[in-house]
Amino acid sequence: MNLKTLITHSVQYNHWVVNKYIDWLATKSDEQLNQEVISSFSTILATLHHIWQTQEYWWSYIAENNDFNPSENSTTLTKDEIFSGIKNNSEKLMKYIESLSEEDLVKNVKIESQWFQCDFSKYEYIQHIIIHGTFHRGQIVTMGRNVGITDAPMTDYNFWNIYKDADVIIRN
């Protein structure tokens, strides 16, 4: 398997998993999604907002447009705005990565921000987005258990990889 296929599968998986989580969490009450628990972020919605904003941040560098404008604080956005934002971003990221060549993926992008400086390949930044989202989705499952949500969907990469061609599992 080449790098292009691996990274493309990774962003397709990420898009699928984001949609699975949003579909799952859309069935939960606003009270549950906004109930404070001890975690990196105080609520499930705040955690989703963070995942979305982080994807947007890295997207701006990967796409080399550097136009990241953080949205409002998660407490001023509705559940639907956060759900829509993260879904739209993961689709935008997936379509963009699908359009890149292997040469594009290995291209380095220098970042100089107020927090750090680095010069890594696009595919490494893409890996970071996927790993970061996975980390926080794991937190959401734990947070959910603390607020009475115990029916998290199966979202393991292996599950997606086995069934991705059998169904319309990637895009839905």
Helices and strands in order, then pairings?
Blueprint lengths: L2 H23 L4 H5 L9 H19 L16 H21 L2 H5 L1 E5 L4 E5 H25 L10 H7 L9
Antiparallel strand pairs: 1-2
Radius of gyration in whole Å, from Cα? 16 Å
Taking the sheet with the most strands, its summary is: 2 strands, antiparallel
CATH C-level class is Mainly Alpha
CATH architecture: Up-down Bundle
Uncertain runs? none
Reading side by side through the largest sheet, how are the strands ordered?
1-2
Average pLDDT, rounded to a whole number, is 91
Organism: Chryseobacterium fistulae
InterPro entries: DinB (IPR007837), DinB/YfiT-like (IPR034660)
GO molecular function: metal ion binding
Pfam families: DinB
Walk me through the structure.
By secondary structure, the chain is mostly helical. The chain has one domain (3-163): dinb family like domain (Four Helix Bundle (Hemerythrin (Met), subunit A), Up-down Bundle). The protein has helices at 3-25, 30-34, 44-62, 79-99, 102-106, 122-146, 157-163; strands spanning 108-112, 117-121. Strands 1-2 form a two-stranded antiparallel ribbon. Helix 1 packs antiparallel against helix 4 (79-99).
